[in-house]
Design goal:
Helix 8 crosses helix 10. About 45% of the residues lie in helices and about 15% in strands. The chain starts with 13 loop residues before the first helix and ends with a helix. It contains 17 helices and 13 strands. The chain folds into two domains: about 120 residues, Aspartate Aminotransferase, domain 1 (Alpha-Beta Complex), CATH 3.90.1150.10; about 240 residues, 3-Layer(aba) Sandwich (Aspartate Aminotransferase, domain 2).
Length: about 400
């Protein structure tokens, strides 16, 4: 008997399953609101003009080769990734208290950071929002964490359940202090698109500090959420620059550079004492070496080229603003059309949310109905990718939502 006889099939990954179903649907007016990737008004992927410029510059650099990068990646990339995250004037950067490692996208950066906290400082409990991006839970479980959820989305008010959020962060007993990490979405919460206010972030910081919980930010949408690089980094900057808190931050450049398949990410770690960075680097290198050895070059080189060139950096910020503005427009249009149709319920949350995703508030039966009757594909949670909307399909989507909400409770 073969060793693998009886292997069961793992559950499908919903977002990719729904995307495949949409791609294979022969209906001409189908709408794909599934995978979190930017789309133009024409419904096409967008290679940022600044990325093309950087790639042309790289292609003509005869000094480049295909040798291994250092285990922690390109320094020119890492140094600038820290700066756009924390600000060039960050006290932590000036004092040498910030380390960094190029990662395989935000996902790989989360994995390396969570592995470090598990192995080196004994974190064994991970708090994640309810709901959250599915990989948060999967990665934590893979690394042996006990996963606990803190309340986040209030379906009735279609906003943050902040009282539940803060209550759930309190440890069950004193022995858990110092062993707990909390994953925090820095901006454009996935999947709800609803972010804490500045005052709420201050209260979260108070609890995290008082309860000795280690904050780990996931920032996948800096600049992409609102068009403002500095504003989108407010939460980690407050924790680190204003409160002086030790933190890990996983950065992704998939969305704000459109480099999805290049897997460009960065793990940033901030500590109290600059003397700790070198030994921390050694353990980070060990984790990287044992998982993927060292990072790929091209995507990191593109980002480094742009961030280190003032002209290209200015062009990139304009590209990011273009994407953010189109998403805001789609939010406004969807809200207006649902309101004009008299769609039951209050839809103000659509314009109060940030970034790529909207947690519509649709239930599973309504989502299923919309898929079957209108060939509009989304996640069963009701999460939609706002970038999948455009002026050609937004009326179809609004009418489908109105139809489902009117007929199915």
């Amino acid at each position: 008997m073969g060793r693998f006889k009886g292997t069961t099939t793992a559950p499908p990954i919903e977002v990719f399953l729904q995307n495949t179903k949409c791609v294979e649907d022969p209906t001409p007016n189908k709408v794909n609101l599934t995978v979190g990737a930017y789309r133009t008004e024409e419904g096409q992927p967008w290679v940022l003009p600044v990325v093309k410029s950087a790639e042309q510059q790289i292609a003509h650099d005869e000094t480049l080769n295909h040798e291994y990068l250092p285990i922690t990646g390109l320094k020119a990339f890492s140094n600038k990734a820290k700066e756009i995250l924390l600000g060039a004037s960050s006290p932590a950067i000036k004092e040498g208290r910030v380390g960094g490692c190029q990662g395989l996208g935000g996902t790989g950066s989360l994995y390396v950071g969570l592995a470090y906290l598990r192995e080196q400082i004994g974190c064994s409990i991970a708090y994640v929002s309810d709901p959250t991006w599915g990989n948060h839970i999967s990665i934590c479980k893979r690394l042996g964490y006990e996963v606990r959820k803190y309340r986040y989305w209030d379906q009735k008010s279609r906003s943050i359940d902040f009282d539940g959020f803060t209550q759930d962060l309190l440890p069950k007993n004193e022995s858990e202090k110092g062993k707990t990490v909390v994953l925090l979405h820095a901006i454009a919460h996935n999947p709800t698109g609803m972010d804490p206010s500045h005052d709420q972030w201050r209260k979260i910081a108070d609890i995290v500090e008082e309860q000795k919980i280690f904050p780990f930010f996931d920032i996948a949408y800096q600049g992409f959420a609102t068009g403002d690089l500095d504003g989108d980094a407010w939460a980690p900057r407050y924790f680190i620059n204003e409160r002086g808190m030790e933190s890990f931050i996983a950065q992704s450049f998939s969305k704000n550079f459109g480099l999805y398949n290049e897997r460009v990410g960065h793990l940033c770690y901030v500590v109290d004492d600059a003397a700790e960075i070198e030994p921390m680097d050694s353990h980070v290198k060990s984790i990287v070496r044992q998982t993927y050895s060292n990072p790929p070059n091209h995507g990191g080189r593109v980002v480094a080229t742009v961030l280190n060139n003032p002209s290209l950096f200015a062009e990139w910020k304009q590209n990011v603003s273009t994407m953010a503005d189109r998403i805001k427009l789609m939010r406004q249009q969807l809200h207006q059309k649902l309101t004009a149709l008299g769609t039951p319920g209050n839809w103000d949350h659509v314009v109060r949310q940030n970034g790529m995703f909207s947690f519509t508030g649709l239930n599973k039966d309504q989502v299923k109905y919309i898929e079957q009757e209108h060939h509009i594909y989304m996640l069963s949670s009701g999460r939609i990718n706002m970038c999948g909307l455009n002026m050609k399909n937004i009326d179809l989507v609004a009418k489908a939502i109105n139809d489902a909400v009117t007929k199915i409770q």
